[in-house]
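Input (structure):
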């Protein structure tokens, strides 16, 4: 009987590693317990990046995984074991902090800010329609409003 070497055995000195370009990337989004659903909202809003309390909340989920995810809450939530999520869903202290952070985000998103209060102080431009809330064009590509000759003649300071 001849000794046949299996083809799947590799010698470590002759292993060639080739890099393969990824065709698609997938983001793993865990199914969070109902009590932890606000974590998803907090993770998908970039406010966490400058809001220290929200970053601290995510870090408290799992400090080691938070560091391993480079402080990315979406990656963190995708890597936390279900057992840890279930444990957090029962932790009353964590849930109070989560509720406070979620309420704070809601106030931040829905509340009036300085810019909204300036709308009343700015004079309306004549013959210019208000900007469309769905318009995403840059100001450079937006057509300029032109005053009609009658409006220009009646405007103070025009020649």
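Output (sequence):
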């Amino acid at each position: 009987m001849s000794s046949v070497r299996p083809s799947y055995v590799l010698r470590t000195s002759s292993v060639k590693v080739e890099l393969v370009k990824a065709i698609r990337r997938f983001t793993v989004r865990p199914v969070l317990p109902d009590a932890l659903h606000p974590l998803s909202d907090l993770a998908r809003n970039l406010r966490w990046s400058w809001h220290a309390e929200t970053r601290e909340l995510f870090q408290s989920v799992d400090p080691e995984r938070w560091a391993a995810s480079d402080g990315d809450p979406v990656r963190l939530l995708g890597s936390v074991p279900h057992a840890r999520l279930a444990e957090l869903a029962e932790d009353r202290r964590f849930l109070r902090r989560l509720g406070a952070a979620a309420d704070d985000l809601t106030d931040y998103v829905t509340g009036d800010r300085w810019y909204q209060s300036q709308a009343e102080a700015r004079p309306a431009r004549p013959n210019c329609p208000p900007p469309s809330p769905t318009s995403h064009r840059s100001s450079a590509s937006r057509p300029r409003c032109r005053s009609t000759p009658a409006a220009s003649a009646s405007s103070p300071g025009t020649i």
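Notes: The radius of gyration is 28 Å. DSSP finds eight helices and no strands in the chain.
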